[in-house]
Amino acid sequence: MMDRVSGETALGLAWIIALVASLAVLFVGEVLGQTPCVLCWFQRVFMFPLAIVLGFGLWWQDRQAGRYGMVLALCGAAVALWHMGLYVGLVPERIQPCTATVPSCTDDNQLILGIPIPLMALVAFTLIGMLSARSLKETQK
């Protein structure tokens, strides 16, 4: 299915996912008042620049913007995967980064519409990474 998507379309879809994810976490944090945990902050560090870098890549018609998207998405996915491991209990509690002064990385605060926030972030980063890689395939020909 990904072979049917053009490079520019793939980059556009990656940008839309990054933009929607960035706006969603701002809504959850600023409007709903939910304080992000430590790992959520790190995921934001990678998601926010994705919306900016991919957006400028589209605007400037930079066919190599997918490279930056892939790197940021891979780093963000690694943090999201670690967060998901904490959430489901695969990572021992003694090495959790969250303390009593900030929200826990594993409590019910991490659910939006019944879906864990780390899972949503992992899916978003994975899709952005795949679409960014697809946008580069066209430039290789």
Summarize the structure.
The protein is mainly α and 141 residues long. It has one domain (2-140): Up-down Bundle (Bromodomain-like), CATH 1.20.1550. The chain has helices spanning 7-31, 38-59, 65-88, 117-140, and strands at residues 111-112, 115-116.
How far from one another are the termini? 19 Å
Low-confidence stretches: none
> What is the gyration radius calculated from CA atoms?
16 Å
| CATH architecture group name | Up-down Bundle
CATH domain class name: Mainly Alpha
> Percentage of helical residues?
55-70%
Number of contiguous helices: 4
Judged by helices, strands and strand pairing, the structural class is: mainly alpha
The overall average pLDDT, rounded, is 86
Do you know the CATH topology? Bromodomain-like
How many strand elements? 2
The biggest sheet amounts to: 2 strands, antiparallel
Apparent shape: elongated
- Beta fraction of the residues? under 5%
Estimate nothing, just give the exact number of structural domains.
1
- What pattern of helices and strands is seen along the backbone? HHHEEH
Strand order of the largest sheet: 1-2
